[in-house]
Amino acid sequence: MHSNQAKLMPGNNYNCDPATPRSRLERLLRERELRKSNRLLQLNEEGRDGNKESELFGNDSYISEGEILGLPNEEEVLEGVAGARSLVDGWQWQDGRSSKQRLLVVANRLPVSAVRRGEDSWQLEMSVGGLVSALLGVKEFEARWIGWAGVNVPDDVGQRSLTKALAEKRCIPVFLDEEIVHQYYNGYCNNILWPLFHYLGLPQEDRLATTRSFQSQFDAYKKANQLFADVVNRHYEDGDVVWCHDYHLMFLPKCLKEYNNKMKVGWFLHTPFPSSEIHRTLPSRSELLRSVLKADLVGFHTYDYARHFVSACTRILGLEGTPEGVEDQGKLTRVAAFPIGIDSDRFIRARELPQVQDHMKELKDRFAGRKVMLGVDRLDTIKGIPQKILAFEKFLEENPDWRNQVVLLQIAVPTRTDVPEYQKLTSQVHEIVGRINGRFGTLTAVPIHHLDRSLDFHALCALYAVTDVALVTSLRDGMNLVSYEFVACQASKKGVLILSEFAGAAQSLGAGAVLVNPWNITEVAASIGYALNMPADEREKRHQHNFKHVTTHTSQEWAATFVSELNDTIVEAQLRTRQVPPLLPIKTAVDCYSKCSNRLIILGFNATLTEPVDALGRRGGQIREMDLKLHPDIKEPLKKLSDDPKTTVVVLSGSDRNVLDNIFSEYNMWLAAENGMFLRLTSGEWMTTMPENLNMEWVDSIKHVFEYFTERTPRSHFELRETSLVWNYKYADVEFGRIQARDLLQHLYTGPISNASVDVVQGGRCVEVRAVGVTKGAAIDRILGEIVHNKGMKAPIDYVLCVGHFLAKDEDVYTFFEPELPPESPPAARATLANAVRTSLPKFSPCKSGSKASRYKKQRSMSTLEKKENNHESGIPWQPTPRDRISLHEGSSVLDLKGDNYFSCAVGRKRSSARYLLGTSDDVVNLLKELHIILNHQVDL
Ligand SMILES: O=P(O)(O)OC[C@H]1O[C@H](O[C@H]2O[C@H](CO)[C@@H](O)[C@H](O)[C@H]2O)[C@H](O)[C@@H](O)[C@@H]1O
Ligand SMILES: O=c1ccn([C@@H]2O[C@H](COP(=O)(O)OP(=O)(O)O)[C@@H](O)[C@H]2O)c(=O)[nH]1
Asked: In this structure, are strands 724-728 and 717-720 parallel, antiparallel, or unpaired?
């Protein structure tokens, strides 16, 4: 997916250059071309100048245990090939300078670990691992690495001298003391997150001890992440890209954004991200997800991992998953797959180096007459080493002819040796290898050569090159770069790769490899036989497939793509933000309120005045009863405001009359139920504008559909109102609810509503079917008329505050009050502009009595005027029409809104036609409290 994605240049301005691609895809394609041509240029130059291998990495860039990293000062580990004509060569900063973008790579490990040789002298050794290998290939940025040097340095002299030594390699150390390393790295990272993310579950052996240590390890994890953040913050410069890596640093995005919200932050996971069912077992599941979501871009090796992450966010946090990523209150975190690669040229060229040739010769001589099988893994439970060896044993058992003709070389690099699980694995593997060698070995040869150590780069390349069959049997693996490196070194031999289907690499190399389920020892044993006997033409074909992939999906591509996508994401977020209304300026709204004398406050009910629930529809973490409850802190200010003679309060809701009666009867206000179809002053009777002959025959058939889906969607429910039906799934499983909603709509459109005069309105977690034309905006003119009439208003309304969490269709209530609407505004809104004049009587009329059920099919009372205008029998959609005009007795306008005394405000939405936004009902409470305080103040004066 990533190869056709492209870069946004720093300082880029989309609009000034007509040749500048506008869409993301255009940019991606152009960048891809650029990268290709730069790569060709680079190869040509390297061809002319001879082999640059030594310039890049020195002869010792891959250093085995104990070897000293002696890179020349000017050729930094991170700087890469001097002649590498990077993609960013052409980058233009806004001041016209050409420059590489600064990249701060933050990973648990630096690419080097330090060994102390004296009070202030250090040896730097290359760290081994896929992440290090991949990032060494990144040459396109002016990169700095920030990470732990793998050593405890308690003293100042040591810290200063190490910082200096590392600075020469463009590395910046984070100092972690022993206790933190123990709790954070050995404990939380490697004993909890690592096994969990690889589907091995949480540690179980000693549940009590685990539970006890969990909290302290998690605290240490957060503390360590904060220490990383402190170092990043100290070195950060405006415009830098900060790229956080891996499960060690899931808390980092949050720490960084809290410090500086403008920082460009990306986070990439090198391991699998497990199914949400696994992730939800983790006690700190939500905190970790929320923190990662603070990043601008979140990347994974495969689409599956990205999908699992999004699904964890929707299922555990109740957030919205979109094709772009995860959305939380309008803030999008982009989530995408960026499969890593290797610096393939380096491996291809290495094969020609004399040191490698020498190693190859040695190996060929040593194993002459036998086929070589190879395993290269860190000695980690996820790598499936015991399973691999057992499968090899089974193969030997079943194929006696092969016993003296094949050898398995297993390189098992010691890793995380302080973690008990890893110690146990070492003895387990030794025990199995010993047993098999005892069983099938001879005086002169053993079938398995097992090495508990790492090899240097040249030895490793030689081994890859002479191998006939590589065996990668990871039980789970983020990607597995060993499989890539093997393919890169097989240009002449064209050996076979047996690859676990549970390694991320299976998705990219699946076409050329022999895929196996590593748990199925019989299958792996059979695959070994198949691979050893594979005819040359099939090997050739498979190899070409994989070779092409490995050489085109390199680590350079990977990093360049990630960073360019990150740059892009930021620009897109800025563009989106510009379309988002600003937060309500509460002080201005309150000041203005205090200066006006005939004030109208229109309030929604659901999610505006109700007790807050989280994104999963839960209050205080638990699913409670589904009835809406008034926010406990709203009562006092609401009472005070509704009692104020200069303020008219209207609650305008989709809920039915009973709900509003139950909740608001003690207040002195107007209640508009069912989106304004019913109106009542709390001291008076309900009135309606329901047309008497409104056709409601559709109700029954839709009710059946809603019942059907309610029965089949746990925790969903539906409400049967007088003018609408609402199926609500906000307490149901989000994903299932959404699928069911889609299905439900399909049923509706093809059946019950195909000929009915209804509108289908989709909310975030609900589907509503209502009589056609019913909206809050359509009702507001009649409500206003009734209020003016009832109050016998003499002076115009000079202040309107309209606050609600309305469905998009009902947002016409905001535009209704806009003093200057463009000509293309909807007729309902245009017809009722503030200066509209109405002389007729209000159109609400008393409701007829009768049971709720019987009312559905009954015709409702309405004024003679409405009867004329809303003829539904004739099938004409029922729309409020610009017929009558609202005015005061003298004929002057009922509304005197000059623009600065009108405040429309959407609650809990990011996109809205309201002028302003508020976050939650808590903010509404604060607003009403401020108004209340002003009222008190006025009374005191
Ligand atoms: O630093 P260590 O604790 O010794 O572990 C070494 C690295 O192991 C993990 O590597 C992963 O990243 C590779 C590259 O993306 C991927 O191919 C592999 O499947 C992963 O296991 C770990 O994620 C790194 O952080 C460690 O440095
Ligand atoms: O003796 C060794 C064995 C392995 N590696 C490197 O370690 C990395 C292992 O990466 P992989 O993605 O396969 O797994 P990880 O260890 O990161 O889980 C590869 O780049 C290998 O070249 C190494 O440098 N020396």
From this structure: antiparallel
Residue length of the chain: 941
- Among 190, 376, 456, which is best to mutate for testing ligand 2, by the most ligand atoms less than 8 A from CB? 376
- The secondary structure of residue 582, as a DSSP letter, is P
Write the residue with the smallest CA distance to atom 6 of ligand 1.
129
Mutate to test the pocket of ligand 2, among 379, 464, 473, 482 (most ligand atoms within 8 A of CB): 482
Token reading at 311? 């699904």
The reported pLDDT for the residue numbered 200 is 93
131 lines ligand 1 (CB under 6 A): yes
State the distance from the centre of ligand 1 to the C-alpha of 424, rounded, in angstroms: 20
| Strands across the sheet containing 325-328 | 171-174, 142-148, 102-109, 241-245, 264-268, 297-300, 331-337, 325-328, 320-322
Give the position, in ligand 1's atom list, of the atom nearest the Cα of 382: 21
pLDDT score, position 75: 33
What is the model's pLDDT at position 133?
64
Helix 698-712 vs helix 734-750: crossing angle, to nearest 10: 150
Percent of the chain with pLDDT strictly greater than 90: 59
d(CA 501, CA 480): 11
Closest to 469 in 3D by CA, of 397, 414, 391, 401: 391
Residue, of 832 and 589, whose pLDDT is higher:
589
Nearest ligand by distance to the CA of 470: 2
Atom of ligand 2 nearest to the CA of 128: 24
Q: Give the number of the atom of ligand 2 that is nearest the alpha carbon of residue 482.
A: 13
Please report the ipTM that was assigned to this predicted complex: 0.94
Are 39 and 375 in contact by the 8 Å Cβ rule? The answer is: no
Task: Give me the pLDDT at residue 83, please.
Answer: 25
- Pocket perturbation via mutation, ligand 1, pick of 105, 112, 271, 342 by most ligand atoms within 8 A of CB: 271
**What per-residue confidence (pLDDT) applies to 111?**
86
Q: How confident is the model at residue 214 (pLDDT cuts 50, 70, 90)?
A: confident
First to last CA, the chain: 68
The mean per-residue pLDDT over the stretch 597-614 comes to 90
pLDDT at 213: 80
Q: Could you tell me if the CB of 134 is within 6 A of ligand 1?
A: yes
Assess contact for 481 and 385: CB atoms under 8 A.
Answer: no
DSSP label at residue 762: E
- Mean pLDDT over the full length of the chain: 82
Q: How confident is the model at residue 895 (pLDDT cuts 50, 70, 90)?
A: confident
Q: Which of 678, 872, 857 is nearest to 757 (CA)?
A: 872
Does ligand 1 come within 6 angstroms of the Cβ of 334?
A: no
26-30: average pLDDT: 68
d(CA 870, CA 877): 8
Give the Å distance between the CA of 271 and the centre of ligand 1.
7
CB 35 within 8 A of CB 324: no
| Residue 647, H or E segment | strand 647-652
Q: Is the CB of 129 under 6 A from ligand 1?
A: yes
Nearest CA to ligand 2 atom 1: 454
Mean pLDDT of 18-34: 63
60 CA distance to ligand 1 centroid (A)?
21
**Which SS3 state, helix, strand or coil, does residue 373 take?**
strand
Residue whose Cα lies nearest atom 6 of ligand 2: it is 129
Q: Which ligand is nearest to the CA of 340?
A: 1
Q: Could you tell me if 106 and 252 are in contact, meaning their C-beta atoms sit under 8 angstroms apart? A: yes
Given ligand 1 and candidates 270, 343, 417, which is best to mutate, with the most ligand atoms within 8 Å of its CB? 270
Q: Kindly report, residue by residue over 763-793, the tens digit of the pLDDT.
A: 888 999 998 888 999 999 899 999 998 988 8
Which listed ligand is nearest to 65 at the C-alpha?
2
Banded model confidence at residue 731, pLDDT cuts 50, 70, 90:
confident
CA 794, CA 893: separation in Å to the nearest integer?
A: 10
Backbone CA torsion sign across 258, 264, 269, 273: positive
